[in-house]
Amino acid sequence: MKRFLTPDDIGSFSKALEDARNAKNNPYADQALGRNKTLLLLFFNSSLRTRLSSQRAGFNLGMNVIVMDINKDGWQLETEFGVVMNGDKPEHIREAVPVMGRYCDIIGVRSFAKFENKEEDYSEKILNQFIELSGVPVISLESATRHPLQAFADLFTIEEYKTVERPKVVLTWAPHPKALPQAVPNSFVEWMKVANVDLVVTHPKGYDLAPEFMDGVKYEPDQRKAFEGADFIYAKNWASYSDYGKILSTDRSWTVDEEKMALTNNAKFMHCLPVRRNMIVTDGVIESPNSIVIDEAANRVVSAQVVLKRMLQYIA
Ligand code: CP
């Protein structure tokens, strides 16, 4: 595996899930594979889970792991072409990336949508320069449009908890005070479309995801109706795609609460975390026995380990 961004990069889901079960049951089985191999985890944005789980996955595979917060620990990078670099950015990304590639065997990079220009964000300008210029396999640790390690962990978590062959999975928008990227819901929809689930998306007017993700996906404007009979409720906020990056609603009638969860088929509650309590979800729901958010976060080690192992096999 040379890059990890979309479900196509992981191939067969049944094989990926088998690999995930093996990684979870026997996390140190492939220590020799990562010996003398170096993983760089590069962050343009904050992280708790992605940073720690990817480090842990690298350690499980016997790798050396370097973590760098580029905003604090490196030179500010210029990402535009053709600029006279007489400002506050002393290094260009087109030198920085190939240099990093000389020091490391695999690079993971987190670079969120900036919400300044839709076309620029959706062309994955930063991530694609790592893919083009690093000379090593690249993992998205959440890019402008996707968060595949989260979606893979979500898929595996649903597989672990499902009680029917084809569960009903509902992705619901929920309110938040800040403008959040669409990467998590985009990837969740992209992966669930391939998985053996009945996916329904519910959100207020103006919050449609990009057509390339929502193509062929069931949309239900009535959140309560969407919740009826659901086996999994996946809550997430995202900013508008059509009115790009804007907050159109903070309507707390969309908060996931006990009354709405009662409409479901005793659904499990999921969220990628971090989550704002009593905006996205009530204390009661997230503290309930049906909340699986901690196991979901724990499975981030598993998804990262499967991907890293395949990259190590590729470069071996
Ligand atoms: N879910 C997730 O990616 O968490 P972090 O932003 O803390 O890494």
From TrEMBL:
Its EC number is 2.1.3.11. One of its GO terms (biological process) is citrulline biosynthetic process. The keyword Cytoplasm does not apply. It catalyses: N(2)-succinyl-L-ornithine + carbamoyl phosphate = N(2)-succinyl-L-citrulline + phosphate + H(+). It holds the Pfam family OTCace. Carbamoyl phosphate binds at S47, L48, R49, T50, W75, R110, H147, P148, L149, Q150, C272, L273, R300. It comes from the Bacteria. Keywords: Amino-acid biosynthesis, Arginine biosynthesis, Transferase. It is an enzyme of class 2 (transferase). Pathway: Amino-acid biosynthesis; L-arginine biosynthesis. Residues 184-309 form the Aspartate/ornithine carbamoyltransferase Asp/Orn-binding domain. The keyword Disulfide bond does not apply. N(2)-succinyl-L-ornithine binds at E142, H176, K236, R276. Residues 12-160 form the Aspartate/ornithine carbamoyltransferase carbamoyl-P binding domain. GO terms for molecular function: amino acid binding; ornithine carbamoyltransferase activity. Belongs to the aspartate/ornithine carbamoyltransferase superfamily. SOTCase family. Catalyzes the transfer of the carbamoyl group from carbamoyl phosphate to the delta-amino group of N(2)-succinyl-L-ornithine to produce N(2)-succinyl-L-citrulline. Is essential for arginine biosynthesis. Homotrimer. This is N-succinylornithine carbamoyltransferase. It comes from Alkalitalea saponilacus.
